[in-house]
Amino acid sequence: MTDNRLRWAVPVGIVTTVAAVVGFSQIAGATDAPDLPKRTASQLLVDLQNARLDALSGTVVQRADLGLPAIAANGSDFTSLVSGNHTLKVWYAGPDKVRLALLGTLGESDVIRNGSDVWVWSSKEHRSTHTVLSADQDKAGQGPLDPRNLPKTPQEAADRLLASIDPSTVVTTASNVTVAGRSAYDLILAPRDRDSLVGSVHVAVDGERHVPLRVQVFAKNSASAAFEVGFQQVSFDRPGAENFAFTPPPGTEKSEAPDAPGPDAVPPAVDAAKPVLKGTGWTTVVVAQAGQAPKEAAGILGQLPKVSGDWGSGRLLSAKLFSVLLTDDGRLIAGAVAPQRLYEAAR
């Protein structure tokens, strides 16, 4: 299924200018369920698998209400996507021509891919970085990715979710919805394991083209989405080539990114230190060395309350959809589960 979905999955982390931030209510669309031919959940999964996306452009609204502590972040920096409402603009004309844009009150951040050239630009920092992807990197799907790694388009979010469907997932449908003025089916994925903090995931599947228009993640026993990414406006016409051309503005500090290692250049020592997965499905817990975690995550966790037990001691981040434990002996343990599951893994 994954190989087929890559034909329509918009690549992560590629960018240009954005509209002003809009309210969450503007994502939802009409309240009356539109008429569409009847489709079962199984049929919709096949539709998503076989859907083909050649081109699109539009405005994406992302909302994150994860219950995280306040984080000082530039609203125009991709690190700000961990909380609040954001508007992004996306242009897609194939996997090698993609542009995504985030605009905040303090400036603009862009990532643009045009062939083998990838540009990352920050108007606030007056800085741009240029990377030329090698054939191996391009084939392996490598290149600059947002370190926060949150989905920035409905396609990306749905791609991750569909890749993880297994017997631990219940797949159903609900009433049809309207997203970005288009009629869509509402496909629901939910964990069978009641210990998961995730209640359900709703994927709005376009009734004509069968690509995802919106993805919403609900915490258990919550009526509002903790995370949502969806189109506010979308067109499936091919964007012009000018949308993927980029020249750093005057006064920009320019740099060339060093060549990244090829897909086979991973040292054995790194391979041996891979995170360990405990459990299965929606309640899988990841155990890693804290040194493998992003620097920003370790900094946030270091400010959190202390916790302790027969497993040891550390600091705990408890959010709506996940929990993270940083132990004093240098382990980072995380999952979409309550803290007790993390303590068991630490023990």
UniProtKB/TrEMBL annotation:
InterPro entries: LolA/LolB/LppX, Sporulation_related. The keyword Lipoprotein applies. Keywords: Lipoprotein. Residues 130-153, 245-264 are annotated as: Disordered. This is Outer membrane lipoprotein-sorting protein. The lineage of its organism: Bacteria, Bacillati, Actinomycetota, Actinomycetes, Micromonosporales.
